[in-house]
Amino acid sequence: MSDLARPERPRGPATLGIHGNDHQKVPGEPVVPPIVQSATFHWATPDDGELLYGRHGNNPNIVMVGRKIAALEGTEDAVALSSGMGGIAMAFLALVEAGDHIVASSHLYGATQVLLTDELPRRGVETTFVSPEALDAWREAVRPNTRVFHIELPTNPTLRFFDPRPITALARLHGITVTCDATFASPVNFRSIDAGIDVVIHSATKYLGGHSDLIAGAVAGSHELVAEVTRLSRLYGPALDPNSAWLLDRGIRTLDVRVARHNANAEAIAEWFEKREEVSATLYPGLTSHPDHEIASELMRGFGGMVSIVLKGGAEAADRFMAALSVALAAPSLGGVETLVSQPRHTSHASLSIEQRHALGIPDGFVRISVGIENVEDLIADFEQALEALDS
């Protein structure tokens, strides 16, 4: 190949997380990029190039981490924002307008469901919720004004992993954009674009950041979509600050190795919980008992760090279990290096009625565990003593 350009070998997620796709080595350049802690930049006229301003989301730290997320997701572009819900909201606003219609999975993060149910209708956008595994329901829900299909993989907190490919194929037939909240998977375990999804949304607070020390979101997709999200974010204001962008980049540098440890710990803990008589159900895509194990095995590169259990003793048992923990921490959020345990009835799905939660498979006694990267033996010992405390 002396007279031909050698085709560039695709980089793996660990390499992309550290270097991205477009890092240029310059003598004297710092190995770790500096924080550009400036709200504004020298600029007089358009002859000076693009106007840089913090609210515009084009601070160098923000631009750099957006490019890295796009590289990980395999999309044309990506933008980092100030929260995951900022990403969800800006993506929807970029894709729909008054008079449009969205079809969404009925298995969604609570705040996303409230946004679709209560907020977007005030802007003239209606949403129909359907079971994500019922393709006929998606087909019947399509209207001439349907612009978006929205799904979540894996789902929060029931950890269902539905096959997105029939949904994306249906969307192609009707010119509909498919958006996916892939926070629970991270691009290490599931790259949404490979399944035909158009727009990938993350709460970067979670696995991408990975250390429970920042709030951020991300939207990845085509250049056109990201440009519109960026334009809207300049109006609505959810720009990420440079320090958080720097922290997010730092977190992404270890994403691949962290997720591998999350996966291994969670699988071992799920197998352990499945044998406990105090637990009526253990939900984890890596278990053969999981209803979506086969499709998750086909599409995921790892089954994730989230495990959910249902305690036989209901709400009281869940409260006592959490109070007895000593290594794991009772706290909302997920995806950090530490193990966090929460009850969706009090946190992510607190806005829903008991009937709505039960319909989604979230009964009282449901406990969501974000398995960290501690020694798994210590975590299992902690969970064991917490279960034993239920009988005391």
Molecular structure report:
The chain is α/β, with parallel strands linked by helices. The protein folds into two domains: 13-253, 3-Layer(aba) Sandwich (Aspartate Aminotransferase, domain 2), CATH 3.40.640; 255-391, Aspartate Aminotransferase, domain 1. It has helices spanning 13-19, 60-73, 84-95, 110-119, 135-141, 165-174, 186-189, 223-236, 242-253, 255-273, 293-299, 314-323, 354-359, 376-388, and strands at 77-81, 101-105, 126-130, 146-152, 177-181, 199-202, 217-221, 279-283, 306-311, 329-330, 340-342, 366-370. The protein has a seven-stranded mixed beta sheet, with helices on both faces. The longest helix is centred in the last third of the chain and has 19 residues, at 255-273.
Largest sheet, spatial ordering of strands = 1-7-6-5-4-2-3
- Rg is 21 Å
Largest sheet: 7 strands, mixed
Count of the separate structural domains: 2
CATH topology of the largest domain: Aspartate Aminotransferase, domain 2
Outline type? globular
The CATH homologous superfamily of the largest domain is termed Type I PLP-dependent aspartate aminotransferase-like (Major domain)
Helix fraction, binned, reads: 25-40%
Specify the structural class.
Answer: alpha/beta
The total of helices stands at 14
Amino- and carboxy-terminal Cα gap: 73 Å
Oligomer: single chain
Query: Quick check: average pLDDT?
Result: 95
